[in-house]
Hints:
Elements: H1 15-26, H2 29-41, H3 45-73, H4 77-87, H5 96-127, H6 136-148, H7 150-199, H8 204-212, H9 221-234, H10 241-247, E1 252-254, E2 261-263, H11 266-294, H12 309-316, H13 320-352, H14 357-377, H15 392-419, H16 422-429, H17 434-465
Antiparallel strand pairs: 1-2
This protein binds phenylalanine.
Amino acid sequence: MNETNKPVHGMWTSRWVFILAATGSAVGLGNIWRFPYITGEYGGGAFVLLYLACIALIGVPIMIAEVTLGRRGGLSPIHSMGRLAEQSKVSRRWKGIGYLGALSGFLILSFYSVVASWALIYVWEAVSGLFRGMTAVQSQANFEAMQANPWLMLGSHSLFMVLTMGVVALGVKRGLERAVEVLMPLLFVLLLVLIGYAATTPGFAEGVAFLFAFDFSKLSGEAVVIALGQAFFTLSLGMGAIMAYGAYMPREIKDKKTGRARPVSIGSSVVIIAALDTLVALGAGLAMFPLLFTGNLEPAQGPGMMFVTLPLAFGQMPGGVLFGSLFFVLVVCAAWTSSISLGEPMVAWLVERGKSRWAASLLVGGAAWVLGVGSVLSFNLWKEHTFLMGTFFDNIEFLSTSILLPLGGLLIALFAGWVMKETQVRKELAMKSFALYMVWRALVRIFSPLAMIAVIAYALWSATSG
Length: 466
Ligand code: PHE
């Protein structure tokens, strides 16, 4: 049996590159666009606490499971799962985890590119000083005008897709690795600059209090499921991105000092990734809420918060042109390193089937672009064409993030917890502490699957009763 990874696609140069790449996948629109507005909607501090619990108790264990499957399989998620099913002598239907992930990744990539491309347009608008002195009505009108313009959005969606698939086409070392090595440090610096800026505004204390004051009366069962879903989406779980990145993670690395090979631990790497992802989400909140309070704006703004309310705040403050521009550059960087991880699993699979990386990237990017056109049109020409959950965009988003991702997570947890041979799991994980291993195992076997079932059940229930 093949115990060593065959580096078909190449391997990350070091453990830190893996951590950076996985953090790049995790940190995205979920952190900067979605986390602040749902925190605003669900009332702040108490929701944040709930979210942290979900990251620790469900996100981290499933991420460990996903990386473990990936590193053990050593290939694209589809072929890795086939290989693992074979090794565990179970039905090859488990390969379905890979196909399911590829489908979710493809669907998410199609609309993710559209929303990310709004940020691209906003970089331009911020730089050109458009937000200066804008009123609330004007800001709303500006956002709506952009959405009403299919040509503008088609252009920016195309540009973002080219940026994304261009990196994927260059391969693991020359593309992904180089991109995250430049974009992630830039992202952290920009975020720190923006938090520093927010700290100079009069609304800072109020913003901090909003994020960290725990008012438990605001919590509901719904908040729990939303927090869970967010924890899951923000860590890029359930669709194979993390599994694919895990496949490029070396098992051991030579210690520079002693020259001896040291095992590369999955558990501690995942804890670092989850911590960084959480820090960025909280940091985004810290950078945004003070500006809203400074401008006397409501924190419960819904999805328009980043594109309507925030520009308004930037437009009112000194240095708003510079910091507004930096903010949207930050969003683009974050979304970019996430979207490449959405494309990589499918491209890797096609490469293993004999396609060149360029052809595979063109194919995947082209197909996701076409599907994305449906999302572009959902905001203008097809706005009135609603079915099931709403527009075309609403349906693709709901199906992929509320149903397929948790379903993928459920199957991954079941496979790692119940199906895969325990000796193999333990060997791959190489956890030093047996007690910690047992905690992980219990979480992944019972707690995480139940949580995933709850998320899916809630999604279906809210879809049919709403
Ligand atoms: N984690 C990304 C974000 O927070 C989104 C994502 C989901 C990326 C699933 C890859 C896979 O924006």
